[in-house]
């Protein structure tokens, strides 16, 4: 085996490996929130421009995922959840992932700027920088506040979408940012609770590792409480309305109930049912953003801005 080539040992990289570098499953929700930002804006976007913008935001998001995978390959190799990723599994060379991430980032930003405007492109560039450099390279390995501050990266896409349509920033787009920003910690900590020792093994200072599980449970609850005024307050802005309000009341009620259950449990109770509550809250967190941003799009359709684009 010693004189086997790299590819004889690990297999040829396939197209699927390069797609996996772009974190496509997470990017579905990221792109969904960006689309909501585009359609909720009070300015109609031509459908072709809108579709192009969505494509370039998706490519930019994917590119930032590739840069994250390149930088984090060493810790991904240690964690059970991530050790099958293309770089730690040996199917893609780190330098290839870095090159893909850099080229795709530049392409996505320039194309978004040419297709729409440079405010939107600048926001996309900043988002990529924030995820790849501020979160991945700096905060992730240095502070348990990593996902609280770094989570801002994932909150920018609706603002990018809004800027695509309007060329600017507004109170509504900042509120949509805050919705994802405040949602990210409970989304992630619910998962960290049932991922057990993964982050300990990798030496990543996640809250579960630095402050322990009871503290993480308290944080899930209080961040979900803090999310309440943002989630409900959006209903009373120009992107909200009765449908959004109904969706927010139901989804936020479910999220609060789950966060409370997490707060009230200890590890013995969680072990006993295989972390069923934590797993459910994580799944519910994904449904939460899909439904709330879906409701924003429905409200936009009712306000006529979507249909207006086709007139
Ligand atoms: C710092 C911020 C965040 C952290 C640390 C985080 C962490 C994670 C982790 C570790 C997973 C586990 C599954 C996987 O490896 O794919 C996950 C899943 C997921 N996250 Fe997040 N997340 C963050 C922000 C976001 C944002 C902003 C979104 C979208 C708006 C998002 C959407 C998703 C989705 C859709 C999944 C499920 C993926 C699947 O089905 O495999 N996350 N997240
Ligand atoms: C448009 C644009 C540029 C969007 C970027 C959106 C963005 C920052 C998404 C990040 C969400 C995410 C996958 C975090 C995972 O944290 P991690 O990387 O620590 O998780 P891991 O342990 O699974 O690698």
From TrEMBL:
CDD domains to which the protein is assigned, alphabetical: PT_UbiA_Cox10 (cd13957)
Family of this protein: Belongs to the UbiA prenyltransferase family. Protoheme IX farnesyltransferase subfamily.
Subcellular locations according to the entry: Cell membrane
Listed EC numbers: 2.5.1.141
Pfam families assigned: UbiA
Transmembrane segments: 26-45, 51-71, 92-112, 118-139, 146-165, 177-199, 220-237, 243-263, 286-310
Protein name: Protoheme IX farnesyltransferase
Species per Swiss-Prot/TrEMBL record: Hasllibacter halocynthiae
Reactions listed under catalytic activity: heme b + (2E,6E)-farnesyl diphosphate + H2O = Fe(II)-heme o + diphosphate
Function: Converts heme B (protoheme IX) to heme O by substitution of the vinyl group on carbon 2 of heme B porphyrin ring with a hydroxyethyl farnesyl side group.
Pathway: Porphyrin-containing compound metabolism; heme O biosynthesis; heme O from protoheme: step 1/1
Record-level GO cellular component terms: plasma membrane
Name of the gene: ctaB
Keywords: Cell membrane, Heme biosynthesis, Membrane, Transferase, Transmembrane, Transmembrane helix
